[in-house]
Write a structure and sequence with these properties.
Length: 200
């Protein structure tokens, strides 16, 4: 047996260094910016428009799905589940808005009660994800706690037909999005400077 073959047979373990970038800031920014812009609408500052829908498709949607796939490659079950799920949430939300506007599909418009059920289920999902953040950074816990509250406020507002609750949800949603942006930028700046520039 040659020496090279002996060397291979004697290897018991191989360590592979992960040199890929952290995908979490991309996912958090896609979520955070889109959430802020949608909830400025929910707070009553401007109507639903193509800017919100485009952000929902491309940054809130596709960017988070990409971040989720990258988290999966890193072996991060939480990150993969969170980013992929919320990316697909944004895509499904855009679908709920646009599908009934297509010719022949107007009868599929989602009424207030089923839309409230949709938001409530996302609230339940987010509540469980929030529990998962309690072992991580406090900044991430704030993102998921405020998002849980946002989903339940939106569900209540739609179920009750309350414009006041939906407006409150809009302001709370702006806070949610800003907390995600803060967490994303904290991760980017801390890594860029190699020290704690932003407390997380």
């Amino acid at each position: 047996m040659s020496q090279s073959v002996k060397d291979i047979t004697n290897i018991s373990s191989v360590k592979i260094a992960d040199l890929t970038a952290n995908p979490a800031p991309l996912g958090l920014m896609g979520f955070g910016m889109t959430t802020v812009l949608l909830n400025i609408h929910n707070a009553g500052f401007y109507p639903m428009n193509s800017m919100i829908l485009s952000m929902g498709i491309f940054y809130g949607g596709l960017a988070q799905v990409i971040a989720g796939i990258e988290e999966w490659k890193k072996g991060n079950t939480f990150g993969a589940t969170a980013f992929t799920s919320y990316g697909l949430f944004w895509l499904s939300l855009v679908g709920l808005v646009l599908i009934p506007k297509s010719e022949g599909y107007s009868m599929f418009a989602t009424e207030a009660f089923p839309f409230a059920a949709y938001l409530f289920m996302w609230g339940v999902f987010t509540l469980f994800m929030f529990i998962g953040t309690l072992k991580g950074s406090r900044a991430l816990s704030v993102v998921f706690l405020t998002l849980t509250i946002l989903f339940f406020l939106l569900a209540a507002g739609n179920y009750l037909g309350s414009a006041a609750i939906l407006k409150i949800a809009g302001y709370e949603g702006i806070l949610t999005g800003l907390s995600a942006i803060y967490t994303a930028m904290g991760q980017v700046l801390n890594e860029a400077y190699g020290k704690k520039m932003v407390p997380l």
